[in-house]
């Protein structure tokens, strides 16, 4: 809402400086986005006073004057300095108050004022006539101002020529503020000032009454709460007066002709959108009457709006018809066929209250948002329709010479019943947390337009004004009181939160811990979109098994984001590609985020937390003391192992992936991660063809684990157990086995064969050599640590256990000891 | 040659050998040669038997003196050799300490998740619980239960991502489907978690709900179709607007600095009443007005208000007995303000250079 300060000033006393009102508006909940200065600025044109007037030595009609312009011209020390101006006018004397255009001014005729010499005498400005200022044709001499005119004031301000327009953002709950009267009322309530609004009234009604001319019918009651129509005859369509053009311009409305301008002007004044129809455009029935019918459109019905566009309507959109064809899109825009033209003479004025919801749908579905639809969708004052029709008719009478037909025609099926609200003063204080003077409450509500009566002790009975659809409950009134009283004045307190305990749950702490461990392992946390491209699983060769149905967006922004993700991997691979493309060759990322598994016959999908990581390149480029070492499978596996160890997950196992099920991983470098029998996820190197699908050149190692499964598998910290104080005995053992014997199997065998005395097993070398070890075989070298809890082991004791271990293990895995 | 002379010569030899030893090994060789089981002094001691009883005590004494002398010499030489060796080691090992250190690689937390954690910690400190909630919500929890009118523009497919409803019988809503709308959506705000809390818990409720929300905004420097909010809800007996102010003042000072001022501007939200927006004093100009704060001296930081009685009643909470407040903060906005981010899209690329900055 663009609020002209000059216009506002005519209705309520406001501070001299617009910025002072702006601060008050912001304080009470009206955001002011900008303050624009409009109108003629008259830079460097000020009021002045003639000090001396002497004849020009070289001219018989010119004068050399000195003019006091106060602080508008000063010397280097800042003292006011009168100007010497050569002037040809004759109608003034020393002591007269005048208007001075100083050096730098540009007058409406395009005259630029510069320092000049007139017949040898320096002149620093011009004493202005009304015509030179573009104010009137009077060129009989310079403008003489009243004696009480101040000296040195910008002329635009003195003559009130410029205006400030406050661009106010009105919240959707305040339709009343989409009008000048509403803004004046709001300002009156904020500043505790009376309104002085002067509204035009009809001077004379003449001719046949409106009810003889038109009939109104609301065929669809859901479309319109009230419909009022007045008739004005013999209108002379022409230009609007300057004051109206200016006020409309300030409000952001272009002048068209006096009749249309009046409807727009009254809308800006009252907030009630109006429409003026050319009566001639309406079909006349046999009884000589025009019929106005408000009805719903049929599906596919076509209608050309004022802007010349043909619109295809959907069923249920509101139409105004002349019983036959449509003439307006109810509450949104008039039709081209009933527009007021220069030759229109008889005018029908519509002042109606169209239903908020239906109007909103119509305008948004047609993508046609007008000043009218904006107001209707927030609800207009149903009780104001007649008054507003009268104001409009009065203005047409006054400004377009119309003859107002007596009376009006209306349909108002369900008259407005204002809410009667009991306001408990104690509740006001209790909710706000401050002691508010009841006298303030009474005045504030009354100034907002509410009816305020005393009810039971400590209570007020408040009647809702019809222009405030938002005031129906006690809480609505409390809000008004608080915002006017001042939110800033309420003392800040902190609630006691008695009988309440806060903090993170163990599950939430565990989720944080997973992130902490992964960062300690060197991974950077990232976020990718929760959206996914259709077929993204197929693109990398990931099975859909166990991932439900894709959750599909009905209107995605882009096709590649039309589903919700079922794995974190594609998002992370996109980030790998991004980094590679931007010269970041060392990439370590993890993400913890939601996956969405749609379910057949269920509205909402299953949402699961997942954590995934990608590793590419190395931890760092080569430096003098660190070598570049590419990150591969075991780096990913190591992080998974560390994560699971830190979470104290037991019975962790890595099982080779079935290449058919895990086509997105490189066979032989991929493992399923298990805790006992529970599958937690996978770790592996991304299959070259999968990463090529993302344009990635570097090998990528990745893992993805189900966070919910991880949280279930995590175990709490166990009790302390001591360390043996006795020395260990270390023995190395290299066993030659077939290729297909895994490290995991060997280690398990060693541990079970070693019994209690074997305290640690560490693989330190794997060696292959067709000649020395044999084809299809490998030598696995372990460092075994024997240690007893309760005594120092003797060498014979160790020897015995070790020999038994060798025998058992070799037998079990078909291996031989490599000497 | 007499044994005494031999001893004198041995002393001379010992001096030479020990002094000429430059390594621990040479010194040990000298010790073995002089004092070892087959060493020269030991040999001489064995020859003592051939001396007359008169000579023996003097020669024996001399031999013992010599042994102690040599032992002393070896000990001193050993210490000085050790010292030399240590000095050599030290000078050999000296490095240019300006060379880079061997840094362990530690990952960085994502900017947004660290802000969310920070907010969680501040409110946990004030006794709040944390609830995350679903991302795929129903229109009831995202709009209806939050007092949003049936025909509110924010419900349209222009402002909300609706998802295909797989439930049986939803094809009946063909008209809504044609508009791109269904009963199931990606939540556009974390506020819906308020309703879940009101339904599932009994007051007192002090909770925040951080998390991802979605809106159909094409990504640009200031918008992302997916971003993060923290919703807060308090419902208890006797909660006042003053409590809302005190809580948010505390939060804002913890988050942005003790010297920051706040301003509460009345505003409108469907699910709170009274509602307001909260501004924090500009950290660039300290309230004087600058281009960062659009010359207002204030920066908008969050929306809040007292919970609308309708919202409480819809979820079965007695709005006469209980009152409360709710608030919502955008994590990306906090990030942009605190770190002067020029483009929010950087949050989503996973660029290692960006992540490593925070």
Number of helical segments with 4 or more residues of chain B? 13
Helix content estimate of chain B:
40-55%
The H-level CATH homologous superfamily of the largest domain in chain B, spelled out, is: Bira Bifunctional Protein, Domain 2
Largest chain interface and its two residue counts?
A: A-B, 100 and 93 residues
Q: Strand pairing plus helix content of chain B: what structural class?
A: alpha+beta
Helix content of chain A: 25-40%
CATH architecture label name of the largest domain in chain A: 2-Layer Sandwich
Radius of gyration of chain A from the CA trace?
44 Å
Q: Looking across the biggest beta sheet of chain B, what order are the strands in?
A: 1-4-5-9-8-7-6
Strand order of the largest sheet of chain A: 27-30-31-35-34-33-32
Multimeric organization: heterodimer
How widely separated are the two ends of chain B? 88 Å
Tally of discrete structural domains of chain B: 2
CATH overall fold name of the largest domain in chain B: BirA Bifunctional Protein, domain 2
Count of helical stretches of chain A? 21
Which series of helices and strands of chain B comes N to C?
HHHHHEEHHEHEEHEEEHEHHH
Radius of gyration of chain B: 43 Å
Proportion of strand residues of chain A: 25-35%
Q: Show unreliable segments of chain A.
A: none
